[in-house]
Amino acid sequence: MDKYIIEGGRRLCGEVEIQSAKNAVLPLLAAAVLTEGRVVIRSCPRISDVLNMVGILGELGCKTKFEEDALCIDGADAANHEIPAALAKELRSSVFLLGSVVSRFGKARIAYPGGCDIGLRPIDLHLNGLRRLGVRITESGGYIECSCERLRGAEVLLDFPSVGATENLLLAAAVAEGTTVIRNAAKEPEIVDLQNFINRMGGRISGAGSAVIVAEGVKTLHGVEYTPISDRIEAGTFLIACAMCGGSVALKNADAVNIASLVHKLREISCKIRSEDDKIYIECSGKRLSPKIVETSPYPGFPTDLQAQMTALACVCEGATVIVENLFETRFKHVPELIRMGADITVRGRSALVRGVPRLHGADVFASDLRGGAALTLAAISAEGLSSVTDLRFTDRGYSSFEYKLRALGARIRRVRV
Ligand code: EPZ
């Protein structure tokens, strides 16, 4: 495995290009199974979650290849409805394939999905929603078996605005017979991107971004060339990096609207942020006041995927901050590692009380999940002294060229094989 060796304490200055959104690209890859036509996803990030999803499409019989930064998918010969356990367990988004594979082949077989170990991550909302669309589902031996001659439209009310369940149901409803209405749908920008992608394929979906999405089922979907939205979580990660280290950074291909909740918090702690076209500019110097409280909630609330990074920032703000993680049960695994760097944090259940300290100091720390790994990397580049951050398999899942981008901004970071 690999680790970062980081000599912290330098300000960040310069420009960084934000990648296409991991959490938009993954459902688009699942949607590519819905058509026999050619699908081209431009500016596709070569992060391991995407590469694993591409591997699954290959197992289904799709032909895939990267042409420079575009991923080309030809699904004409896809015929296998079974998603191999070894790959399904690598990532959460394998579960999205249930909706598209059972739509395409009338059946699907998948092992329970994997993904970051940040909580129980049940899939009951996915399965109950698919049952409403006529899918027969049995679960045995760690596998989920689905079958359905023809999906039919229905009203589905989600107990919780689950991102994945909303996407899975959109993928199934796109070519179902009749109309599907999804109520209490997730409103994330990645859902809007999926709606736009499917509509460019000939689908008829409306309402994404609101709590009620309507899908008029169509008979077939054709191929498409598409550029996904930019990664708001990567953008937020770099904004927080600048807030922690001080400096002046420009983010290219970034949309401040999609991370308005974070921008608001960073302005509260006296960062200067402005946006212009597809760029966000941030300047941070001097003291950082604590944001007092950061509470994660579904979009447009504060994103859970930026909680770990914000916790790291709170460690070096003046005053105390309460961090409340409402989405996942065990998403504070970065806290013990931050404490080893000199942070003052007390966790009780879903809340963490962070008392700011002037500086963190270097330490050898270990990542347990994707966003926790990013948070520890930010802590290390802002800390005084030398750190290592081990097991980069986590950050490699969601950040392309992470160390190159940080180094280009002035951080002293290098990757070594352990
Ligand atoms: C997506 O995960 C993202 N992953 C996550 O990003 C993100 O943290 C999450 O949405 C919330 O925004 C991808 O898009 C690939 P959920 P997902 O279903 O779909 C409960 C990252 O770091 N729930 O909205 O799994 C669940 O337990 C990753 O990029 C059920 O109870 O999230 C959780 O408490 C991490 N039953 C809450 O809903 C279900 O059937 C939110 O989960 C499904 C979910």
Please tag this protein with its features.
2 domains, UDP-n-acetylglucosamine1-carboxyvinyl-transferase, Chain, binds ligand EPZ, elongated, 418 residues, four-stranded mixed sheet, 24 strands, 27% strand, 13 helices, alpha/beta
Model description:
- The chain is of the alpha/beta class and 418 residues long.
- It folds into 2 domains: 2-19 and 231-417, Alpha-beta prism (UDP-n-acetylglucosamine1-carboxyvinyl-transferase, Chain); 22-218, Alpha-beta prism (UDP-n-acetylglucosamine1-carboxyvinyl-transferase, Chain).
- It has 13 helices and 24 strands.
- The strands form 6 sheets. Strands 22-23-1-24 form a 4-stranded mixed β-sheet.
- β8 and β9 (143-147) form a beta hairpin.
- α4 (97-105) runs parallel beside α6 and α6 (163-173) packs parallel to α7.
- It is elongated.
- The structure holds ligand EPZ.
